[in-house]
Amino acid sequence: MKLWGALRLFSLVALAPLLAHAEAPSTSLRPEARPEARPEAPPEALIGTGAPSLGAVILSEGQGVTRSLRPQARRVSVAGFRSGGEAAGRAVDPASVLQSSLRPAPRPRSVERAARRLVLARAKGQICGDPSLQGERIAPIPGRLPGCGVAEPIRLRSVSGVALTTASTMDCPTAKALKTWVERGVKPAVGTRGGGVSNLRVVAHYACRTRNHRPGAKISEHGKGRAIDIAGIGLNDGSEITLLTGWNRGADGRALRAMWSAACGPFGTVLGPEADAAHRDHFHFDTARYRAGAYCR
Known about the structure:
This protein is of the alpha+beta class. It contains eight helices and 14 strands.
């Protein structure tokens, strides 16, 4: 036992110097968090010259990234926008220039009031649920002959801004077919000639009669509110393209033939000067439908 106690004492004496130097570290061994990188404005020398070089963005080792890697919008001059170059001028943000250039200038109050009145007038006068068709609904028309009459008639005054010289009675499908013809046939064929299309000269619309007024013949589509006859196209300068004199004459003939062709489809029956003698001076359009398709002569 005396020997064991002597050995323990010797061990404590020998380790005392080492324990004296085993102190806690003065600083934590956990690595410190790097300071948060904050974007800085690019140097003025880099503005307008494209993306900055990698060396201009990344600093020396150990400092990390000190500015955003996201490219900033270049600032350009107003003069540069107008001339297409980098001309000197007041620097503005491109987004603001684009926004201001695409924003329409406000119209004068007088123009706004006139436009509002036009919208209200068209809404008030529209028929068949279409502001391009102006007129009014009228009472159902009974037929004095079997097969005549119109259950839901309208009286049409204008189509897509083109007046009818005579307010015409028909049904809505016929009015809509007429609109399609005016927009796709008449206006493109006339173009800007004479200041554009002003009116359609109507020579027949609803009438309870047989075909070509022949006794015993079938009821005409006119007697059902499905037909209209047009003899001329009035222009804004007061002139007129007429079928009687213009069908075989130069520019008038080309325009009229284009109109005839455009009518074949929107209307089920299209007759013109080459159909027969009864139609030598007008177009006959109706919305009758046939199994074989439109009948156009």
